[in-house]
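Why do we care about 3D structure at all? Because function follows from shape, and shape follows, mostly, from sequence. That is the central idea of this module. The next example makes it concrete: a single protein chain, its amino acid sequence, and then its structure expressed as tokens.
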Amino acid sequence: MQSFEDTLCQVLAENKGKRVVCFCYEGQKYWLKQVEQQKGAEKFLKPFPTKAIQLEIKRLKWLNQRHVPTAQLVYSGDDYFVTTDVGDCVSQLLQNSDKSEDEKQQVIAQSAQKLAELHNKNLVHGRPAIRDITYLNNQVYFIDFEAKSLFSSLYYQKRRDVIVFFYSMFQAKIDEKYIHIAMQNYAKTNPENWQASLNLLKRLSFIYYICLPFKSVARSDLISIYGLFEVLLDK
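And the structure:
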């Protein structure tokens, strides 16, 4: 039987230049992420792609050592790494008609609860959009942590995490009933940061009033801003 390393070498050879590739080994799904192949202006905007992927590897090791619910790093090289599969995006599951209502409520409740637990441990994601949360075998996982979130001001980052999380649900057009379930579960698990996040949102409410005159002609991003303030602050 072909070893994992031999399988990986074959996948690398067949997918040169591809940023992300899914492959299977012994019935298990894995994800290969390679260094970004930059063209044109990207070479100036992102001048150190190899350094960036090494930073991702370092971040994953750091998270895995702390048992954070994220993909496990299983293999890495100078310009690539391989992680375990952690299921489907929560945003897709919530809009999947094949899923029961009970399962959908469980998924969104656990997503908010796990984010709150992350914050209780003084850990942050940096950009916990609903598309960066996955679900597999009754377990929620977070993917694509931002490196700077591991080192910046925790107090600010935790509040920003909450706002980004809920804003992303409005962007993804998640049913409002699931947003309320997420609110309840986050507030129950981490009441201190929930209140701090609402206080920050209140201080930012001038944004809502600036945007309000354009509500009748608003598109996706503005509509998401209205939803964020109106639902979380009950405007």
